[in-house]
Backbone:
């Protein structure tokens, strides 16, 4: 409920809130809320505005999940949960942890983040890892 109030206050003030939006949609409590005021034009008009930042950092549960710089986004989190085995008869299955490799996406060409191009851009991966 606290997250919903924060989002409502931010909407009234015309601020953009990041970090708590997904948590609010899923009715979970985020570990943090970041309020941006100077980047609002950049996020609402991306073709005409320039950001003053070199990179954006994506956190979940106090862990760095990804970094975006320009058209590139690098995902760090090497594990995810998946149902294994799947549930039966309306009951959920158990969750298994799966590992994935570091993933790099060119958001200009692949906004859905489907094609991992990390193998073709190792220098860029190292640069983004060092941000």
Residues:
């Amino acid at each position: 409920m606290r997250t919903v109030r924060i989002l409502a206050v931010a909407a009234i003030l015309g601020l953009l809130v990041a970090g708590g939006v997904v948590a609010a949609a899923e009715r979970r409590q985020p570990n943090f809320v970041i309020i941006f005021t100077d980047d609002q034009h950049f996020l609402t008009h991306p073709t005409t505005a320039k950001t003053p930042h070199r990179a954006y950092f994506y956190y979940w549960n106090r862990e760095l999940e990804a970094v975006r710089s320009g058209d590139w986004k690098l995902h760090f989190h090497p594990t995810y949960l998946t149902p294994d085995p799947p549930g039966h008869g309306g009951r959920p299955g158990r969750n298994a942890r799966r590992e994935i490799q570091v993933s790099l996406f060119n958001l200009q060409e692949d906004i859905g983040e489907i094609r991992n191009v990390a193998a073709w851009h190792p220098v860029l991966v190292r640069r983004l890892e060092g941000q």
